[in-house]
Amino acid sequence: MTFIEKLSGAWATNNSLLCVGLDPDIEKFPAHLQAQPDAIAQFCKAIIDAAADLVCAFKPQIAYFAAQRAEDQLEDICAYLRGNYPHIPIVLDAKRGDIGATAEQYAREAFERYGADAVTVNPYMGFDSIAPYLEWNDRGAIVLCRTSNPGGSDLQFLNVGKRPLYQHVAQLVADKWNRNGQCALVVGATFPGELAQVRALVGDMPLLVPGIGAQGGDIQATVEAGKTANGSGMMISSSRAILYARGSVGEDYAQAARRVALETRDAINQYRG
């Protein structure tokens, strides 16, 4: 099953456009976990079990694991997802961007070591930095386009051929790079007008949309700007607001995360049409 097929199935089966980001910060963990050698794996698995029926994808952010020397726990978490929830895509948020043999190794890391269904990539170095990921025909390459951070405008809004660079990237990916129908784009929820412009350019291509929750993106504006004609087409990502729901630091953290994930999924669904 390809990444796009798995994602489409999760949209339908779980009636959800919600993607839960796995950004484990040990300092925010409940006290009973902090001293455990596999605290990150325990924490993330509990979140996964609590929210698995509410999401269309899980998105581990590799930096949170690498900084803690916890890549082995990330491997364990990805194996846990594949074994227990094989219908839910794993999006490795790595934002890789390099060329040639180095890009080939990054692709192997994402798809062999972690078994991810898709990986986020940076288009700044052009098509030959993306091509090695596309050799994996059943996996996805999610290309940074219009990011949710304020500094994204420093480059993404530069005029290229009388339009901003992010629109050029969107068109380039849709028209030339998406040869196997396996590409998606990252477009932030903090810019709904620009999200709508990207949707108009790329048709039904999936969009990974960070920026709701802790970053303050408006759910209604996001869904109405980015949804496809059938009310899907997006992985709307929330991380901290769900992982550390309402400041929960007790042993009920997974239940608290589930409550917020359910509220978020249902809030998104109000505007899908």
Report what the structure shows.
The chain is of the alpha/beta class. It is 45% helix and 14% strand. It is built from 13 helices and 8 strands. It has an 8-stranded parallel beta sheet with strand order 2-1-8-7-6-5-4-3. Strand 4, helix 7 and strand 5 form a beta-alpha-beta unit. Helix 3 runs parallel beside helix 5, helix 3 crosses helix 13 and helix 9 packs parallel to helix 10. The chain starts with a helix and ends with a helix. The model has no long low-confidence stretch (mean pLDDT 95).
The string of secondary-structure elements, in order, is HEHHEHHEHEHEHHEHEHEHH
Q: Helix fraction?
A: 40-55%
Strand order of the largest sheet: 2-1-8-7-6-5-4-3
Number of helices: 13
Strand content: 5-15%
Query: Structural class of the helices, strands and pairings?
Result: alpha/beta
How many strands appear in the DSSP assignment? 8
- Low-pLDDT runs: none
| N- to C-terminal distance | 28 Å
**What's the shape?**
globular
Q: What is the typical, i.e. mean, pLDDT?
A: 95
Using the CA coordinates, give the radius of gyration.
18 Å
The largest pleated sheet is described as: 8 strands, parallel
